[in-house]
Amino acid sequence: MIGRRYIAIILIILFFSTSIASALTLESRLENQNVKNNENRTESNIVPLPSINTIFVDDDQEPGWYNAIHVRTIQEGVNNASRYWNVFVFNGTYYENIFMHEKINLIGEDRNETVIDGKGAGNVVTTLIDDIKISGFTIRNSSKNLVEGCGIYIASNNITITNNIISHNGLCGIRLDSSSNNIISNNIITKNKFLIFGSGILLFESSNNTLTGNIITKNRMGGITLFNSSNNIISGNTISRHMTLNKYYGGISIGGGSYNEINHNIITRNIQGIVIRYSENNDIVSNNIIRNVKGITITNSKHNIINYNNFILNKKHAEFIFEKLTYCNNTWDNNYWNRPRLLPYPIIGKKIIIDRLIWDFKLPLFVKFDWRPAEEPYDI
User: Fold this and answer.
1) Hey, which residues does 129 pair with through a beta bridge?
2) Whether 12 and 137 share a structural domain
3) d(Cα 144, Cα 150) in Å, to the nearest integer?
4) Which helix (H) or strand (E) covers residue 284, if one does?
């Protein structure tokens, strides 16, 4: 009798050991498959392990695949998700306008192959609630009008937009409207244009945002544009080929902003590299400003710092424009001006006589100096 009990106990232990080993083996296979998939995929996202907190979106599965957590459209996935869930979207082209109304992570499988196409109507993605993350998509084809027309429209806080391609939208690739504490990083933002309009990233009355590691190129009007926006960080971006003749816009434009930090960017081949207007206390430090028609133009602005930048091969490196002499009080120090300088480098200031949108008339009436120009370019 005792022998039979021992045998039963041994069989039960063997059964559970085998079950646990099988479960661990399955989990290991799934994890290894994720690792293998991501090693072989460029600029893609990890496919989540099956979880009650993940909804999967695929537009071309067999009918039996679909249920509450396996859906056909991104909006259906967003609608079905609870707070802080993942919505994972498999490769495909989804012709939708997405309204984000829950705090979720929206994840595309591969930013080159997972496309949200707005069909030329409205904003492609709209967020009006805080704490959302969007990554791994191509976002394109918003409306082309002066009312709507953004790839991503943000009127909320704590949003992270990373590792996307945002292109061929109307007014702008990304717009932040009265929005703060957002991160926009490692995106490609290009060819957003409508008539004479089209910015890569537009901030309107928005503060404490970080824009970093983005490639922003060939947008119609400008790369990064700030209106009445302060305390933002613009760092480590490559901004190029913005060819507007509108003097208010350039690679980076700030109008009515203060305490913004512009550092470690590559700003190249624009009509105007940096444009600062009616703004105070901004730091423009350690940037490569290369091969622009104008490197930096500062208009009716004061107490801005322009230090430790490389100005190389611009047709005109720098100028400032003023109505009153109080707008001449900006600091230029330790910049590299295309070649070693034995003498202080002069920055010419021009007095506005006539000011128009496309053209103006100014007289050179003042000069500021970079008293300690760098002898060699910085490694930025």
Assistant:
1) none
2) no
3) 9
4) strand 283-285
Tokens of 57: 């979106």
Count of structural domains, the chain: 2
Q: Give the pLDDT confidence of 78-106 residue by residue, as tens digits.
A: 999 999 999 999 999 999 999 999 999 99
Which residues are CB-contacts of 77 (< 8 A; sequence separation ≥ 6)?
55, 56, 57, 71, 87, 89
Question: What is the arithmetic mean of pLDDT over 371-379?
Answer: 97
Rounded-to-integer distance, Cα 69 and Cα 82, Å: 11
Q: What is the mean pLDDT of residues 326-346?
A: 94
Residue 83 identity: R
Q: Are residues 93 and 30 in the same domain?
A: no
Alpha helices, DSSP H, located in the chain: 2-39, 74-80
- Count other Cβ atoms within 10 Å, centred on residue 103: 17
Q: What's this model's pTM, rounded to 2 decimal places? A: 0.84
pLDDT surpassing 80 at residue 314:
yes
pLDDT at 301 over 70: yes
Residue 23's domain comprises: 1-40
pLDDT at 10 over 70: no
CA dihedral 232, 138, 142, 176 (to 10 degrees): -10
Count of CA atoms in the C-beta half-sphere (13 A) of 204 = 10
Question: pLDDT tens, 362-373?
Answer: 677 889 999 999
**What strand order describes the sheet that includes 336-337?**
92-95, 114-117, 138-140, 165-167, 188-190, 215-217, 238-240, 266-268, 288-290, 310-312, 336-337
Phi, psi of 220 (to 5 degrees): -65, -45
